[in-house]
Amino acid sequence: MGRARGRARREPTGMPRTLNTSDMVTPGSLGPPHTEPTDGEPAGQSLLDGAPLSASLDTLIQHLVPTTDYYPEKAYIFTFLLSSRLFIEPQELLARVCHLCIEQQQLDQPVLDKARVQKFGPKLLQLLAEWTETFPRDFQEESTIGHLKDVMGRIAPCDEAYRKRMHQLLQALHQKLAAQGQGPEGVLGADKPISYRTKPPASIHRELLGICSDPYTLAQQLTHVELERLRHIGPEEFVQAFVNKDPLASTKPCFSEKTTNLEAYVKWFNRLCYLVATEICMPAKKKQRAQVVEFFIDVARECFNIGNFNSLMAIISGMNMSPVSRLKKTWAKVKTAKFFILEHQMDPTGNFCNYRTALRGAAHRSLTAHSSREKIVIPFFSLLIKDIYFLNEGCANRLPNGHVNFEKFLELAKQVGEFITWKQVECPFEQDPSITHYLHTAPIFSEDAPGSPWQDPPSNQVSLEAS
């Protein structure tokens, strides 16, 4: 073969590249709210225009609060809500925002200024709608819902439409939380290792090619699985995965099940790697194994064309596992030119330079797409997480003067915001339940299974390639 196996598992080096971003997180100018500056910061400081970008936590919270004639940019709202959980728990942040709204708009007075409230009310509702839409898990605690009802109950007497809108907002929030509670965490419950047999009984294993023999169809079904799993990952999970104790906070933020869906998605990638290797190793004859190898090469190529880079890398990684790479006689029967091209695209050299170029191309296609088919961008997820990890490790959350390093979180919001845009694409392919069920439940080899090809065979054991 002459190829360096296992290259796809090499650690990337250097800082991540900055990709084009969606409008959701495009920095722009931000007008200052009509409040007094705090901590000696100059009035009118622009938090999204200019460098260095930093401010005290109190000032950042103040900029989040709308007034009768000010509303924060959408980019600022997303960036701050994403990063604020490193410094303050979402429940406490909401409590402070509601308190500031009540205090600044004098909502605790027995008689309200109706004209003033009618200018302020729609802005408050818009902020709460954006918050609950993008970060619904921030509202899992009953106390957070209580804060919402309290502040909205104070302005509702000025316009009955506020009460109706709040009811709709809470209904939508409830539906989102219910849907997220049905995530994919338990789908992979059938990942039970199987013992290796030269000719496994049909009751133990059915070959994938018997379920789906068309590479394009399988690539479409893999894309279905990927998008379904991505949909459950909240943007806050990327921050919470690397949360560290804030040296200026008395306690570390506590997140219950903070990265469940993110971890489940990584497990899916690992499962697909092992499934590919298992399917290749299962046939008894090298001619059949070569057919499976070529099938997966075609599937990987279709994944690349679709923009499904995560499945593409999983397939390449599975084919680079030692039980597959040491099948020398099998590989001798494979037309490997197409596989070498795919390996080149996903080569880790230069911090995955080739892949990042292809990803930018897919991202550009998505921005100008006229169909859901062209909008699909499924990034190599493990590399995305590593990029965010390196960004987090390479830049401090706070500056020496205690200010929040907001510039860092703008860069974080760019990366996470683009991912959020990609994960919301509706899959245009018709789902085939029999194929997706097989992908989720087919037994796979494990490294510690008796007789597994993942283990080096004893010297007196007949090799796979003898047949």
Automatic annotation (TrEMBL):
InterPro entries: Ras-like_GEF (IPR008937), Ras-like_Gua-exchang_fac_N (IPR000651), Ras_G-nucl-exch_fac_CS (IPR019804), Ras_GEF_dom_sf (IPR023578), RASGEF_cat_dom (IPR001895), RASGEF_cat_dom_sf (IPR036964)
Organism per entry: Vulpes vulpes
Residue ranges, compositional bias (Polar residues): 457-467
Domain of life of the native organism: Eukaryota
CDD domains: RasGEF, REM
Keyword Thylakoid: no
Gene3D superfamilies: Ras guanine-nucleotide exchange factors catalytic domain, Son of sevenless (SoS) protein Chain: S domain 1
SMART domains registered for this protein in UniProt: RasGEF
Stretches assigned to the Ras-GEF domain: 214-458
Keyword field: Guanine-nucleotide releasing factor
Annotated TM spans: none
Renumbered residue ranges of the record's region Disordered: 1-49, 448-467
Record's protein name: Ras-GEF domain-containing family member 1C isoform X4
Domain N-terminal Ras-GEF: 48-178
